[in-house]
Amino acid sequence: MKQKLNSVSIGVLTGVFVPLIAVILFYLFTSKSFSVKEYIHFLVLKNVYTNIISLCVIPNLLAFFIFIWLDFLKSARGVLVATFGFAFIVLGLKLLT
């Protein structure tokens, strides 16, 4: 079982889905009766969408340290790869806008 969970692909999947869950939770706690479409439009209008993405990647730190603590070093590497992916996405969005 440990061999299945200790892979880079599991880490990348975790590193992508944890921020997505964080974005959903962020929306649920801050939307104040906006629809999803209105909320995304509001974030783009206020130019804070890159800040939201950056904040929602922070829970990857917890996933990374859990994988380190469980000695799943390949999975921790996958979380790190996904985090760098998000960082490059934010950098690209910042440079384009």
Question: In summary, what is this structure?
Answer:
With 97 residues, the chain is mainly α. It has 6 helices and no strands. The protein has one domain (2-96).
User: What Rg is obtained from the alpha carbons, in whole angstroms?
Assistant: 15 Å
Largest sheet: none
Mean pLDDT: 92
Poorly predicted runs of 5 or more residues: none
Count of folded domains = 1
Structural class: mainly alpha
Q: What helical percentage do the residues reach?
A: over 70%
Q: What general outline do the C-alpha atoms trace?
A: elongated
Strand content: under 5%
Instruction: Note the run of SSEs as H and E.
Output: HHHHHH
Amino- and carboxy-terminal Cα gap = 45 Å
Q: What count of helical segments does DSSP give? A: 6
Q: Care to count the β-strands?
A: 0
Explain the layout of strands and helices.
Layout: H1 2-5, H2 8-30, H3 36-46, H4 49-56, H5 59-69, H6 73-96
Question: What does it look like?
Answer:
By secondary structure, this protein is mainly alpha-helical. It has one domain. The protein has 6 helices and no strands. Helix 2 packs antiparallel against helix 5 and helix 2 crosses helix 6. It is elongated, with a radius of gyration of 15 Å. The termini are far apart.
